[in-house]
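Internal ticket - ligand job 477, NAI:
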Amino acid sequence: MPHKSTNDYDVIVVGAGPAGFASAIRCAQLGLKTACIDNWLNKSGQSRLGGAHLNTGGIASMTLLESAKIYHQLNHDLAMHGIHAEAISVNLPQLIQRKDKIIADISHNMASSLAHHGIDHIQANARLLNAQQVEVISTVNQSLSILCAKHIILSTGSSPIKLDKVQVDREYILDSISALNLQVIPKKLAIVGAGVVGLELASIWNRLGAKTILLEAQEDFLSVVDQQISGEAYRIYTQQGMDIRLGARVISAKIVNKKVSLDYQDQDGTHSLRVDKLIVACGRKPNSMLLAAPEANLLLDENGYVYVDNNCRTNLPGVYAIGDLTLHGPMLAHKGIEEGVFVAEFIAGQCMPIHYENLPSVIYTGPEIAWVGQTEQDLRAAGVAIKVGSFPLNKNVRALATGKTDGMVKIITSAANDKILGVHIISTLASELIAEAVLAIEFSASSEDLSRTIHARPTLSEAIHDAAFSLKQGLMR
Ligand code: NAI
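stdout (structure tokens):
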């Protein structure tokens, strides 16, 4: 078996999603000789960097979401501005092409960046053989080699979970990947799972005109989100036409006469539904199955997550795991990026700990949901004495001027010392607004700090100021 000398590299990064890419770049910046191995091929068999987040997840879905938003605005929001437009139509293949072009451009930029930093980009399937060796099978010519490194960083991400009796064929029964490549807008669409992915996909297809039904096994809607915000979200989404059925567990689906026939159970019994397309969006699992040879003895938990300590170290010396592969923090691209940079700096002996508790979360729906810190329900359950301030978007002048008045900002502070414990936003551009709250929490700010910080007028960010200001009135709940 051909193989290079020991310690070919200081670092081999396996996987070039957001976490692996950020890690490889930081390693190179710190003077480490680095290789980055990735096996992603697009639908035409071309190599693409960026992993699921770019190619089939967050960024892919965001490009379509933006197109869907424009179409929806033209159809629904122009009249209030006194603007009239006729014969608005969607060319879906063109929307998909635009998405593919953006992905190709970003992937190309990433490849240039790897080259610019002197990183060897290897297009291949990689498998960990032991703490210092990786088996590499080229996706270009199938050649096999073994590469060695002092440090190996595993960042192979995650993929959609499958349901036993719901066979994805990618034409009628879709996973979250094929759901972003439809060529015709379905008249009637069902989605299994009203989690982050399900809701983001629903926001695209509902806005493009598909009658969209979400089937969610849990009785509570968006249970990870602050309950007041999830209640507001439920109200807004259903008003927009989404049919959200809670406590509805999908048990089977099959394709009959070019339609999907599915069964789901709720407290009233078993129900059948016939739709044009069904999307399965019921969670993701770590891509750890083929990651390591059995004799490598890489430790996984019972759900396939790679075991890591607080410094992202696996049980093998010099081998690290980051991003969706581990149970540390949620499956978020920016969490993976932080870990990627952290591990590079850890290897170079100059790291600072990651503040997982201050990670922002975003759901890219319309309006968006974003939060940082703890929810009211969690704080109350923990018996923490809190104060709650809020401000509705329909009293914010920028929101009124733009007509995007759905939503609110909610700030939770410690009743003892006014320190901000959580900020929860449902609003247009909540993903951008949350950055101020993240910074405030990172710097241990109080609501008084926020209310004394001057915000430009008129801006949506004034709603954060005004929610903080409302706490001055001593609103105890
Ligand atoms: P999720 O766990 O958020 O939601 C899946 C939902 O499917 C759950 O609520 C579950 O109860 C439901 N479900 C499971 N089986 C079901 C069945 N048989 N019938 C009906 N409902 C069923 O998982 P999701 O949405 O796939 O997201 C996966 C991960 O990716 C999450 O950790 C999420 O944070 C992350 N992600 C984050 C994004 C962002 O930051 N905007 C975008 C996309 C994914």
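Auto-summary: The chain has three domains: 3-159+285-356, 173-282, 367-472. The chain is about 30% helix and 25% strand.
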